[in-house]
Design brief:
The chain is globular, with a radius of gyration of 18 Å. The chain is built from 7 helices and 10 strands. The protein has an 8-stranded mixed β-sheet with strand order 3-2-1-4-5-6-10-8, sandwiched between helices. It comes from Paenibacillus gyeongsangnamensis. This is NAD(P)H-binding protein.
């Protein structure tokens, strides 16, 4: 497939590029700094990537870059950028909508706080104590719900450089809900207590960047199981639910 990665020099984007090359995809990197990209990839991998150096906020440049691509993976920006982050995602999504030769498959990055908490009608980002900037992911989610594109939101917890688990490890993937077992009694908790429960279990949501990248690349088909879904990841554990 032909895949374009926005934010290709970031921690997630650079892993998507490398894994995509290994899978034999035609990878395009949309970046601000090509030298940084080449330093990260090395000469061998860099030969297998088409590089576009341009302004991610320029609609024309983004639209032209999307032409004839099968999928776009948006790993640019972060929630702490506030309005700029929301504008970056909105601009790329808008150009995906407008570009007639773009196939329409889009992944964007969110976070575990976007996922439904079982037995409640809550998501983590709206709970007391969660960093307010995480709600920028909520805004990007709302933007996607307005489009007809075939999209998915990857919602990992803390991403780490590599697995801390011995191989083999089972990656548990969920749609819409948190990927760790939650006790039914949580529905009786106050919102503050729910937040505290989740904070105490954050380590269970650690997942390696490469596993996040591979999961997105493994689900690029139009109309697949993750169409218009939030996707959660966690390593299967034997931790007792309390």
């Amino acid at each position: 497939m032909k895949i374009i990665v926005f934010g290709a020099t970031g921690n997630t984007g650079k892993r998507v590029l490398v894994q995509g090359i290994k899978m034999g995809h035609e990878m395009t990197a949309f970046v601000r700094n090509s030298e940084k990209l080449y330093d990260q990839l090395g000469k061998h991998s860099a030969k297998h990537v088409k590089v576009i150096v341009d302004d991610i906020m320029d609609p024309v440049s983004v639209g032209e870059a999307l032409a004839h691509q099968d999928a776009a993976i948006i790993a640019a920006g972060h929630a702490g950028q506030g309005e700029e982050f929301v504008r970056i995602v909105d601009n790329i999504i808008s150009q995906c909508e407008f570009q007639p030769s773009f196939s329409g498959r889009v992944w964007i990055m969110g976070g575990a706080g976007l996922l439904d908490i079982p037995y409640t009608d809550l998501i983590g980002n709206n709970l007391p104590g969660f960093p307010p900037e995480y709600r920028n992911h909520n805004r990007n989610f709302e933007r996607l719900q307005q489009t007809q594109l075939d999209w998915s939101i990857m919602c990992p917890g803390t991403m780490i450089d590599s697995r801390e688990h011995p191989d083999p490890v089972h990656l548990h993937v969920t749609t819409e809900t948190l990927p760790v077992p939650i006790p039914e009694t949580i529905k009786e908790y106050s919102e503050a207590d729910i937040a505290g429960h989740l904070f105490s279990r954050l380590q269970e949501l650690n997942v390696a960047y490469d596993d996040v990248a591979i999961c997105m690349l493994d689900h690029l088909e139009l109309g697949g199981a993750f169409k218009r879904k939030r996707v959660g990841l966690a390593y299967q554990s034997n931790i007792t639910v309390r």
